[in-house]
Write a structure and sequence with these properties.
The structure is a single chain. The protein is of the alpha/beta class. The chain is 42% helix and 25% strand. Strands 1, 2, 3, 4, 5, 6 and 7 form a seven-stranded mixed sheet that branches. Helix 4 links the parallel strand 4 and strand 5. The longest helix has 18 residues. The N and C termini lie far apart (59 Å).
């Protein structure tokens, strides 16, 4: 019976991971990915499953199309839950909530230096949004509506 329970849990975790693959990515790698000169407009949402305002705004990010005025748009949902909670918290959350864009498990070093590296004005509060396009950037701390997101994206074009 015990082996059957372990097998069931393993299959459940594997199924959740397969339905919503979530890459573990260090902060520096995320920065390099979005700050490298590209024809793509990157929108990074910093969020966590336990953050009610973060969960509330997910449908706003889901509305972002893969192109805006002919420019490719890539939305990255950078999750800030603890990495050891990925299987117990994040993957079940993704099974229960519609998240249309790529979800990343952000690996953050100890201390707060990484927060300032992402944006010197950021207090570390979430949700937060960072956008990059061809050397231009935009940062917002707090909730966002789709209309705001669209306005901010257009301001970078």
């Amino acid at each position: 019976m015990r082996h059957l329970l372990v097998l069931f849990l393993w299959i459940s975790i594997f199924k959740a991971e397969a339905a919503h693959p979530v890459e573990n990515i260090p902060v520096a790698d995320l920065q390099q990915r979005v700050e490298t000169a590209s024809d793509t407009l990157f929108v990074v949402n910093l969020w966590a499953t336990w953050c009610q305002p973060c969960v509330k705004e997910i449908p706003e990010f889901n509305r972002i199309a893969p192109q805006l005025e002919g420019v490719p748009v890539k939305v990255l949902m950078a999750n800030l839950d603890f990495p050891n909670q990925k299987e117990a918290r994040l993957l079940p959350f993704l099974e229960q909530h519609e998240v249309r864009h790529e979800v990343l498990m952000l690996l953050t070093p100890r201390g707060g230096d990484w927060i300032e590296a992402l944006d010197p004005a950021w207090s570390g509060a979430i949700p937060a949004t960072i956008m990059h396009y061809k050397g231009k950037r935009f940062f917002h701390e707090g909730e966002a509506t789709y209309e705001q997101l669209e306005e901010w994206m257009k301001s970078l074009l």
